[in-house]
Batch of 2 targets.
Target 1
Amino acid sequence: MIDAKDVTISDSEWEVMRAIWTLNKVTSRQLIDTMNQARGWSDSTTKTLLHRLIKKHAVTQHGDQRPYEYQAAVGEQDSMAAAATDLFDHMCAMRAGSTIADVIQSRELSQDDIANLQKILAEKAKTAPKTVQCNCLPAGMGADCNC
Amino acid sequence: MIDAKDVTISDSEWEVMRAIWTLNKVTSRQLIDTMNQARGWSDSTTKTLLHRLIKKHAVTQHGDQRPYEYQAAVGEQDSMAAAATDLFDHMCAMRAGSTIADVIQSRELSQDDIANLQKILAEKAKTAPKTVQCNCLPAGMGADCNC
DNA sequence: TTTATTAGTTTACAGTTGTAGTCAGTCAAA
DNA sequence: TTTGACTGACTACAACTGTAAACTAATAAA
């Protein structure tokens, strides 16, 4: 299993990955038909994306003869965490909290999800600082942050 | 103020936006120097990015004579929310909760942030469903989701 | 075994991004 | 008024993306 942090998946590729993760093990035909129905893509488009994913080591090819099977080489949860972390990493640290709030408000979450988040937050509250500093510019520059 | 949802900001452009948001109102010279110190970019790189941001309507140019001033035309919090929402929009809905958990765990949050999130979650719990369905493939396809 | 079909590989091509050089217009100094 | 410095505009160029056609190799049907 390749580390999700070492793989950059583009938007379209991401759609292919979702299908692969969901179907778990696919032939190209299955995947092509799936993407055709799900997104209206031509055969070629799916083929290209699949090959790019293989080249990026996000997907592996299995089998010794022709209708090969394809499988994800990176985990879905890991990839999601990597993508999300990466996004937050280049946004203002001071506003991460409110942004997470925005995300939570825009998502559907299950009772279990909520309970889990509450537990994590309760734990985090024990050592949380009073405030978080803006990290948009290196220390010293931009004296008074307007963030 | 332009709607953040209508503007797509690339990674490098994002760095420039952060500087502009923080400094609030800048001349190109200020911005160029800032990016040079903060990221080691050449003058040209910052200039190009600034112009692309103007073309995208993420930044506006002010003043009638030469050292113009530049200012963000999209809000920082709005842009962050738009970027984050956009990311979650193309990831499996079923795993959004765990991904948010991953993000929370990787961030530094203030006491206030945490309290706010707790309030939102408590509210959300009132109407939260028992489970959230995977939405990786259109209904009907991929019968048994492995997500 | 020849042919048709399918699966896999290469090539294509315009738009975006990261990164930066060069040219031109304008204000300030001489 | 000419010149220099600086700001802003335009050009450059390779890598990556989204989208797909064309070609080739392998298998299944005739």
Target 2
Amino acid sequence: MNAQPLLNYINKQISLTEGEESFLISKVNHRKYLKGQYIVQQGDICKHECFIISGCTKTFYVDDSGQEHIVMFAIEDWWTSDMGSYITQTPADFNVQCLENTELIQFSYNDKEELYIEIPKLERFFRKIIEKALAASQKRIIKNFSLPAKERYLNFKELYPTIEQRIPQYMVASYLGITKEFLSKIKSQLILEQ
Amino acid sequence: MNAQPLLNYINKQISLTEGEESFLISKVNHRKYLKGQYIVQQGDICKHECFIISGCTKTFYVDDSGQEHIVMFAIEDWWTSDMGSYITQTPADFNVQCLENTELIQFSYNDKEELYIEIPKLERFFRKIIEKALAASQKRIIKNFSLPAKERYLNFKELYPTIEQRIPQYMVASYLGITKEFLSKIKSQLILEQ
DNA sequence: AAATAATGTTAATCTAGTTTAACATTTATT
DNA sequence: AATAAATGTTAAACTAGATTAACATTATTT
């Protein structure tokens, strides 16, 4: 199993002994998904939190009128799951689908809790990751409300500098909460401006 | 110090020994704020995470054009802070202001980390709280995008059933991301409908 | 009880973003 | 290379929600 990217990621913040590393690895699964496959489906219970080794995913929600709303993208070294479903083990609100062939490492709920008990500094490490994710999520809320679509698009390009090249534009529009037609208009305006 | 509401809140999920309870209490401050006072100000570094014993707060952000955007409210048994500022100890994006006289218990960053080291089950407890907050924040993002203002208002009333009576309506509008005039219109429509 | 400040309502006008629809371009499939 | 499928663009008509402004109601202060 190629767990090295995960270990590198963790060792940037804390240091694990060899024993801890192998215990960690014994508790996770390595998996490959093809482009288009679903990691989580709306209505299912989300069994895993996933660390992406390579590839790209989108997390989205289909509303009652059938419209798709993208909540986030994730690429190498990012985490993805439906947090609400994962922590309460209730049906997911979101879908997580692969936009490219994707290789990742899965943490099941129970194995992760065991890991935390065995290696407390891992619990600290994950707590801090979630704190950061919460702070980012709150910032996104205010940006959605206080900024017009053009500014949100510019922010998106800053936050996800490499992703825009990897995904179709209509998904960017969905992430921004606007139609693809309007994003097209914004982009042509931006070209005229400079 | 009246820490009983905090202990009750914690003991709903985990059980602390008397020694742990008194260690916990030795690490926190009890404080009272008057209506109108600020717990955190945009630009300052957020020093504490706060558990509310009584009262009510709003967390808001003032944008470049001077407009106020409310991110959340908090009442008895809820937590409040600027998470982004607190965890990174960098200037806050948000203000937290008391809408009523408010009594709360403050956790400083360093004392909280000490608590976690001394009482690991508290770290687990807080991790789970943050996971829930993150899940709620993600749900709010999709609801903002996928629902029209009228639905968001109905959702607000479900999420904060007691708060609507305690705060002025223009703050509800700010939380919903609409003007007070438009909320007024929505409310009169809802009255006509039933 | 007045007077003032804070909050809430209504209606007209305006605008950011949607919808629809037709067409253009790029990518994948045979 | 040809065709089909997926993605992107443009423009006209439309709508949810903003803005402005005048007025109504409710709290607060004197």
